Amino acid sequence: MYSSSKLAVKRLFAQSQPLNRILVGRCFSSNAVTTKERLIIFDTTLRDGEQSPGATLNITEKLEIARVLSRMGVDVCEAGFPIASPGDFEAVKAIAEKVGPLMDGREATGQPMRIAGLSRAVEKDIRRCYDAVKHAPINRIHTFLATSDIHLEHKLKISRDECIEQASKAVALAASLVEDVEFSTEDGCRSDRDFLVEVLKEVIAAGARTINVPDTVGYTTPQEYRGLMEYLIKNTPGSEKVIWSTHCHNDLGLATANTLAGILGGARQVEVTVNGIGERAGNTAIEEIVMTLKTRPSEFPVYSTIDTTQITRASRMVSSFTGMFVQPNKAIVGQNAFAHEAGIHQDGVLKRPDTYEIMDPKSVGLTTNQLVLGKHSGKSAYRARLEELGYATIDEDQIEELVQKFKRLADEKKVVTDADIEAIVNDELFQPEMTWELKQVHVTGGNQVKATATISLEHIDGHEVTEACIGSGPVDAIYQAIHRIVRVPNRLTQFQIASVTKGIDAIGEVVTKLESPEEYDMPDQRRRLQRTDSGADVNEVKNPQTGEVTTRTFTGHGADTDILVASAKSYLSALNKMIAHQKSQAQARKNRVE
Question: What SS3 class is residue 220?
Fold first, then answer.
């Protein structure tokens, strides 16, 4: 009975249906069948997640993360805030065009990932958002307006009546452009409940299909959030016509708990990010929500179609690209999530894993597969393993280059794990446009001698430059030598080293973050000369909700068994991003003049 029910579910999943309801077989003694609703997973890693300080991503990185999210089975991908900058617009447009149509790994959903863009509740934002997302087969405009009295009075300086009018007009405009419109009540959890009902009644009448009630400042508690969701669903006219959504921040460490409470209160969409990244303390983590539903299905009236085996890969990629290492004790994806130190725990797990493990590590894509590489290993074996890991778009030339990298690595550490493979692929394939390429690193140092580094770099035009520098340590000497060659002013704001796997021969990953010193040194009137449509300088990033302008950060990553080589790669990666950004902005200014 149970196996046939699962087969029926799979058939139903394959159909593209707008409704969430579906019959799901549960293994009760009575063989009962209960009604569950499908939970829509709305991932905002590329928008809210990128608002984390220092988490700026380039288009190539955003595209690759979007591909992983699509393969994972994410329902809606909020790809960015198109009006924030020309770069944001191009990234959302590229994701809509290149990732929007993909169906790989999406058999359970039966349709491609919906591509959404964020916009303020103003006409120019909404039209700009539409121009970016319209290229996706299925898309969404997500518009928002603050509803709390503190925001209306002190930030927007409008009355409640003006708020209702602006919100309904914005939704009506968006609904005239796309079929799927989401409206968010910024700071909804600190808004007057009855006023929320008034606002939401009007935006639903104007054409909103999803209503999101964010805990913008991470202030609410699970009981409060569930109660608010239940109150709004019960009292808002037209509530049965829309999908209700959660969006929780983790300022008090309650983001996941609040989101789950929102589900119990009637929400059927959750807004989440990979690794829980986001501004301030972050957002609800996608991995925590989907694994809670998978591990405790009897506690919730919903199910998810996420392929949980893609969680680890997504986590590692986001961590690598953003330069935000995952804390070891992070739930689901931390290095210690499935580690056991105590002897009694180790003994129990060895006898029977579920004595102390409530989840199978393989269910989140955490494997212990080891690919033994040698002179007899060929491209076909490597390609097969890469495809199993989700790298299906790598071409023959790239495979050939990676094979050589794997073999050189195998000579140094004998056994190569999946984590090693992912670190090498991310380091080799997802680097920025190479203005400068690292050719050689030679370092001498010790406690009785000044550290000296000799660096050779090759420029994109083909000429090679070698420089040597003395530094306070080997990494400083390397960075000084690279800086002498590249000659791009920068300020180092972060340098981190982590091992990919255990052991003295492990690959080391280095993350470097840079800012332009001009962002600190230029007079304010000069910094404000190059404004984008969002009101931010071309070298700045503006938070679309708070209006806060922050300095753009350039993150580089490098991986190698030699951490000094990894350090050189990482610094050069960040510099290449900075150079590419400067080139694109110069071209944009030239185009505006012409």
Answer: coil
Q: Whole-model pTM? A: 0.80
The answer to whether the beta carbons of residues 451 and 470 sit under 8 Å apart is yes
Contact of 126 with 544, CB cutoff 8 Å: no
The mean of the pLDDT values for the chain is 84
The residue among 577 and 117 whose pLDDT is bigger is: 117
Cα angle value 305/311/315 (rounded, 5°): 140
Can you tell me the distance from the alpha carbon of 245 to that of 445, in angstroms, rounded to the nearest whole number? 57
Apex 65 CA angle, 243 and 570, nearest 5 = 145
pLDDT digits (tens, 9 = 90+) for 396-431: 777 777 777 777 776 676 667 777 777 777 777 666
pLDDT tens, position by position, 284-340: 999 999 999 999 999 999 999 999 999 999 998 898 888 888 888 899 998 787 764
Spell out the residues 6+ positions from residue 42 whose beta carbon is closer than 8 angstroms to its own: 74, 75, 76, 78, 116, 245, 269, 270, 271, 272
Element (H, E) at 247: strand 243-248
Give the residue from 59, 45, 67, 46 showing the smallest Cα distance to 112. Answer: 67
User: Rounded CA gap, 312 and 291, in Å?
Assistant: 12
Give CA–CA dist 82/67, Å, rounded: 19
